[in-house]
Each structure stands twice: as C-alpha cells, then as structure tokens.
Amino acid sequence: MRIGINTFALSAARGMAGSGRYILELSRALARNPGGHEIILLANADNWDLLPETGCTRIRCEGLTAVRPLRLLWEQTALPLLARRLRLDVLHSPVFIAPTWLPCASVVSILDMTWFLTPEHHTRAKGAYFRSLIPISANRAARIIAISEATKQDVVKLLGVAGDNVTVTHLGVDLARFTPQPARTFAHPAARYGIETPYILYVGKLEPRKLLPTLIRAFARIADDFPKHQLVLAGNPGWDYAAVEDALQEIGRRERVRLTGFVEEDDLPALYAGADLFVYPSLYEGFGFPVLEAMACGTPVITSNLSSLPEVAGDAALLVDPHDDDALADAMRRVLADDELRTQMRVRGLIQAARFTWAETAQRTIAVYESAFADTHVREGLRAA
Fold it and tell me: How large is the C-alpha radius of gyration of the chain?
C-alpha cells in the first residue's frame, strides 16, 4: 500500500506537545519497519528537518506553514487533491480531523475527547471547530485509532460510532532516552532551570485541566514536613493560566515553587531522573506521556484516578482524586517519607514503562491501515456490483 501521513501538526516552532510527539515517534517507528508498505510523510518547511530521512518518502508541501487557520483550510481543500495525485491507498490523519472527502481510505486518530467532556478548558472558537469536524471525520473514517481504552469508550459513547470501528493503539516511550541516570548527569540541567534539589516535579502545559491549583495547595500542606523540597512546574503557561497564579498567591510560599517555562526536549530525561517524586493530577488525559516518561526514568509517580491515567500507570503509581487537596497531600507525604515505598515504586514503574514501545505502536497502526484499506475495497466492490 501507499500510506500517506499528515504530519502538519508537528511543528518545530511550537515545541513538542503530545500530538507532535505522537506524529514524530510514529513516523520514526514506521520508517524503521514499514511492514512492506510505502510510507509517505506529507511535510512542510516547519517540520521537514524533524522527520526521518530514510525508510520512508518525505514530500514537502511548499508554501504551507504552521499558521493553524491556513493549515486547516489547506487540509480540507488541497490535501484530498494531493492524495489523489499521489495515488494513496490510505491517508492517516493523526490529530482528530481528516478531510471531509478523500479518494482513499481514511484513518483518523482521536487523542482525547476534551473538546466534548471539558469544553470550558478550550477557547470558544477552537472548541467549536473541533466539535463540528471531529464527528464528521470519525463517522466517515474507515478506521478510528484511539490511544487508550478510556478514549475509545468516550469516542463510542459521545460520537455514536461502532466500537468495532475503533482500535486502541497505545503510544510508547523512548526507553533509549528516558532512562535512570546518575546524579552527575542531571545536576547541570537542573541548575540551568534554577532548580534546587530535592524537588517534586510536574511536566506539561500549565493549563486548567491539569488541576495544578490542587497540586500547589497539596504541596503547601506538606511544605513544613519537607522544608528542603521545591515544587517544580516545568512547562509553558497554557490557556487560562491565571488559576495557577491565583493558587500560588493563595499559598504564600511562592519562593518554594519554581516555574521553569519551556524545557528543552534533551533536558527532560535528566529533570525526571533528578526528581524525588513526579506528580500529575490531570483531570483528563487521552494517554499521558509524562507519567510513562517519569516511570522510565525511575521516578516514583502519583497521578489521577481518572480517564486513561490508571490504564497507563497500572499498579506502578499511586492514584488519587485530583480534586482532593488532602488526598493528594497525603499521598505525596507517604511517598516522600518512605524510602522502601519509593524503591518499590521505581521498580514497578520501570517494568510498566517497558510495556509501551513505539515499535508496538507502529505494528498495531499498520494493522489498522491494512484493515481500513481492505474494508474500503470491499465496500467499493459491493457498490460496483
């Protein structure tokens, strides 16, 4: 088959968000083992240098930039014509939305359902756009990829698609990059971001659905018990960041909280490995990359008991209600005070992270392409008959 992958949501200019990491790592894994198919990466000037050069075909769509409105328009108008010209058998749209018309089988990945479940956590215009086009893309797709079982259940319930048409394809973690490290390797990156050891770490956008005010208040409750620890919030401010600032003002311990801003990809493994504890109290995640990355680096994890996070964390993390300040504080206190528990959590975390590989993600994704192509040809044959 000739399989096209729309990579335009991967942008060097915007940093490596979860959707960008999915596109990049899936492209790399497919290039290493394409399963006998031709993988065609539809790229632009903004992500050309990020994508693999061998094992696949890169096609540069000239004039297409990372400016979102122009990209979305191009995807709905020019992309179907490009798919016809390239004689694609399958087009994979890995970030929620496919063209409303295609001359080939359509595979669309749905990464989460926050647009429908927590619309208040998105801007009005962006939310309206995705809520309008995601159902159309899902119902016209030959196959839908959900990145967790929790996401699949939400897709089936909220979009009314058949469960048999949705395949769960877990994402992976790069175990060559995210791995335990000796102290000498993480001291320098920590210092570069103004982080003092020991510290408790969060990694991700600073936005409402991550429930960071809960984490900030929980940290305030244990701060006197662990007077040497910093709370480190690593990531860019997201939409409606004001709630984070309000919580910081409320606790009156701003000097104990370090906001790093954007963290370079190469520095992330060291920051994970240097933390005494990683805490991720998110309200909703389609998958939850940071949980696995922290586990792969040997860091104990506390995360939410909601959405896909129990599925990803397994028995390796402590799960709490992310709305409960006291429950989160108690879990943090328990882990930090118990050396034996931290050791057990590190071991379980390494085992759990090793279950999620990009090679497995690519293999499962290829199987989805093959079934989408086969079903599309069966339907076309029936119509012709």
Answer: 21
Q: Is the pLDDT of residue 89 over 50?
A: yes
Residue 282 has pLDDT above 90, yes or no: yes
**Separation of alpha carbons 61 and 41, rounded Å:** 10
- For residue 382, the one-letter residue type is L
Going by pLDDT thresholds of 50, 70 and 90, the confidence category of residue 252 is confident
Report the distance separating Cα 219 and Cα 257, nearest Å: 9
Estimate the crossing angle of helix 212-222 against helix 325-337, to 10 degrees.
50
Is the CA virtual torsion 62, 68, 69, 73 positive or negative? positive
Question: Can you read off the two tokens belonging to residue 267?
Answer: 């520095």
Composition of the chain by helix, strand, coil, percent to 5: 50, 15, 35
Helix axes 18-32 and 358-384, enclosed angle (nearest 10): 80
Q: How would DSSP label each residue in 354-370? A: TT--HHHHHHHHHHHHH
Q: Is 287 exposed, middle or buried (0-12, 13-18, 19+ CB in 10 A)?
A: buried
Rounded to whole angstroms, how far apart are CA atoms 251 and 47? Answer: 41
Give the ranges where 95-254 is alpha helix by DSSP (H). Answer: 114-117, 124-140, 149-159, 183-192, 212-222, 242-251
